[in-house]
Specification:
The protein is an alpha+beta fold and about 725 residues long. It contains 27 helices and 17 strands. The mean pLDDT is about 90.
Length: about 725
């Protein structure tokens, strides 16, 4: 068994390409090796900023023989008196066999002759040489480029390729490369460790590069960087802000991680912590150092009690050059902090109210007016939302004020330079001007949640404006005629709808989304008479979009799929779901707990059985009162009376259900399970589909009303 090595040497690769390359390479190589029946023990793909490496360990010299059977004529036609006929001879000749090599096998259609064909395995070297150009060209990503005079595209220009089976070079060519890429056993070490390195054997590749300053294995680099940061001055009360995303990015920016620490002037601690952190993490890829066990105030105007005037940096340089590396990074950071300080000072010369007028000069989206007009729409929606949520007048006015100032910082110097700070810096400017803390917090948090894993606004004002902003986005973009499709969702409409549902579920707010949609679209029609949308059609589209978001979010919460279908499936109209989305969430949790407590199975069995027969009844789903649809005088057995009593007991619980009634209804159904079972099974049971039409309809009505009452909880027929 041999080891194969492929190293693609490039100019500096984008940091965000690494994980994609690894998964793409592994998939394609695995697929082709298995297709060609090439045995191997392990595939390793890894990357550094300058190289993509593929290692196939334990690879065989030849692919396995390919054995195939070909069915021929029936034995009765192939042989006569034990001798091959022309049919057998012709069939054997077709596959270059003698008739004696034909096999006789029994099939469901009788005895037939078969030809067993053995295609000998091929040399793995030739197979790899055929596959390698395709493996390289199949790597995809954003911003791929051409270089030289060729047509071949890759993320960055390929400068060398190492291709070895053990110690032997395996040559191949990549069509479309001009100049032609040299393929051999020569790689390049770390930029500061020389220009050439001869790889003696595929098995020694990782060790040889390690000796010249390159940690090729990506996971090893990641763990090393993490250890360097976490072990930085462990005895000091310091908390390095090394997020997972920053850790991955740093891993893909260096080949030989070197930890250096730098300082910055304490005067910059007068700047907000988010400003310093954004400059360090996002723009410079440094690691900020927070004071340990500090309670962070999101509206803090300075960093004096939050951050240390120091930072960590993962360099790709030599340890001997640490001093120069530190000085260089400190110089760059000072310039960036000085810029930020200047931008804040210039922003504070203009009031937040004055900035709002500047929003008139910024287009929101073609056909939808300016950002100023968008803010007005958000304010209008905030009034609608807070009124329906029964906010007191003071909170309604504060919510409108949050909406009014929600976008003012989009035209500030700080956000122009640091877009990541929108909302954050605006809230701090407002606090500096003397605005109330709860309004400032609302401005800060109204962008939340930015995803399903993100936190939600902490106060009601932020939640209300977050709802309004997301409704505005959905109504405006839908009215414009645009929809999310497949993976394309440029306005993040799915995220907007998810955010609405997440807030409502988290706050347990009862909000009729149908009413919001219908009232708003009438207003939107007045605002945009030139947009040709049909109210009914647009409303239906939005309602269905929300239904799909409900289902999608519940799936992300690991809710059993059958329970999702039982409560949010097509049994129920979209209008029913959107009248109160929190109602859906509550019933989902209730059924999941019943399944967990093993109280759902017996109930499910009986109700599902009743539901199947209920389809034969003419009673509508809205009927939950048995008194006008059941004739007690024709009961033949006690189980019918018992069933009627169950329905009478459940009737008030299934009427105008609330949280308490749902639980009581579930408990009532569970406690009545044995009674319901007796209706179907045992000596005292009844034949539902009896020939007597009156008895049959009476019994079907009993079951139908039971089904209707249980539908207030869920469609139990959807449960597995």
């Amino acid at each position: 068994m041999s080891t194969y090595l492929l190293e693609i040497g490039t100019e500096e690769l984008p940091a965000d390409l690494a994980e994609s390359v690894i998964s793409q390479f592994e998939l394609n190589v695995n697929k082709d090796l298995k297709l060609s029946k090439i045995k191997f023990s392990e595939i390793r793909v890894t990357t550094t900023p300058r190289r993509i490496a593929l290692m196939i360990e334990g690879i065989a010299s030849f692919s396995e023989d390919n054995i195939a059977d070909r069915k021929g004529p029936p034995v009765s036609q192939a042989f006569h008196d034990g001798k091959p006929t022309k049919a057998a001879i012709g069939f054997a000749r077709k596959y270059d066999l003698s008739p004696e090599k034909l096999e006789i096998r029994e099939t469901p259609k009788g005895s037939f002759v078969f030809a067993k064909l053995i295609e000998k395995g091929k040399p793995v070297e030739s197979l790899l040489a055929d596959y390698l150009p395709g493996w390289i060209s199949k790597i995809q990503g954003r911003r791929f480029m051409r270089w030289g005079n060729g047509d071949f595209r890759f993320s960055r220009p390929i400068r060398w390729i190492v291709s070895l089976i053990d110690s032997d070079v395996l040559s191949f060519s990549i069509p479309g490369c001009d100049p032609e890429i040299q393929i051999g056993n020569i790689t390049r070490p770390h930029r500061l460790h020389g220009s050439r390195l001869e790889i003696k054997n595929a098995k020694t590749y990782f060790d040889q590069l390690k000796n010249v300053g390159v940690t090729v294995d990506r996971n090893s680099r990641l763990l090393h960087i993490n250890d360097l940061v976490l072990n930085y001055e462990p005895n000091e009360k310091v908390k390095p802000d090394l997020t997972e995303s920053l850790l991955r990015e740093l891993t893909d920016l260096v080949e030989s991680p070197l930890l250096v620490n730098g300082n910055f002037d304490e005067s910059f601690l007068d700047l907000p912590p988010e400003v310093l952190s954004t400059v360090m993490k996002v723009h410079q890829r440094y690691i900020p150092l927070y004071k340990e066990n500090i309670e962070f105030d999101p509206l803090s105007l300075d960093s004096k009690n939050i951050l240390l005037p120091r930072f960590l940096c993962i360099s790709n340089g030599l340890s001997s050059a640490k001093e120069n590396i530190v000085l260089g990074n400190e110089k760059v950071l000072k310039a960036r902090f000085s810029d930020a300080s200047f931008f804040i000072k210039s922003d504070l010369l203009i009031s937040s109210s004055s900035r709002i007028d500047k929003l008139k000069d910024v287009t929101f989206s073609e056909g939808l007016g300016s950002l100023y007009e968008r803010v007005n729409r958000i304010e209008w929606l905030v009034k609608i939302v807070t009124s329906k949520l029964k906010f007191d007048q003071d909170d309604i006015e504060k919510s409108v004020r949050v909406a009014h100032f929600s976008k003012h910082d989009l035209v500030s110097n700080m956000v122009d330079e640091f877009p990541e700070l929108q909302g954050i810096i605006g809230s701090k400017y407002l606090l500096h001007e003397g605005e109330s803390r709860d309004v400032c917090l609302g401005v800060l948090e109204h962008y939340k949640p930015k995803g399903t894993a993100d936190s939600l606004p902490s106060n009601n004002l932020g939640n209300a404006v977050s709802l309004a902003e997301r409704f505005e986005l959905l109504f405006s973009i839908y009215a414009k005629g645009e929809r999310p499709s497949g993976s394309s969702d440029p306005y993040a409409l799915r995220r907007a709808a998810n955010g609405i549902l997440m807030i409502l579920w988290n706050k347990d707010w009862k909000l009729n989304i149908n009413e919001i949609i219908n009232e708003s679209l009438i207003y939107w029609q007045e605002l945009f008479p030139s947009l040709p949308f049909d109210l009914a059609s647009l409303s239906s589209d939005l309602e269905e979009f929300f239904r799909q978001r409900i289902i999608s979010l519940l799936e992300e919460k690991d809710i059993d799929f059958d329970i999702i279908q039982a409560i949010a499936g097509n049994t129920f109209s979209t209008s029913e779901l959107l009248d109160d989305p929190t109602d859906v969430d509550f019933r989902i949790s209730l059924l999941m707990n019943m399944r967990k407590n093993k109280t759902l199975n017996s109930l499910q069995a009986v109700v599902s059985r009743a539901s199947k027969l209920a389809s034969k009844s003419s009673i509508s789903k809205e009927v939950i009162d048995p008194s006008n649809f059941i004739d007690k005088s024709i009961f033949e057995k006690s189980c019918e009376s018992e069933m009627f009593n169950v329905l009478e007991k459940l009737k008030p619980l299934a009427t105008n259900c609330d949280r308490i009634k749902y639980k009581l209804l579930a408990e009532g159904l569970v406690s009545s399970a044995e009674t319901l079972t007796r209706f179907f099974d045992g000596e005292g049971s009844v034949m539902v589909m009896t020939d007597d039409i009156n008895l049959r309809n009476n019994r079907l009505n009993l079951l139908t009303i039971l089904r209707n009452q249980s539908l207030k909880l869920a469609d139990f027929s959807k449960l597995n």
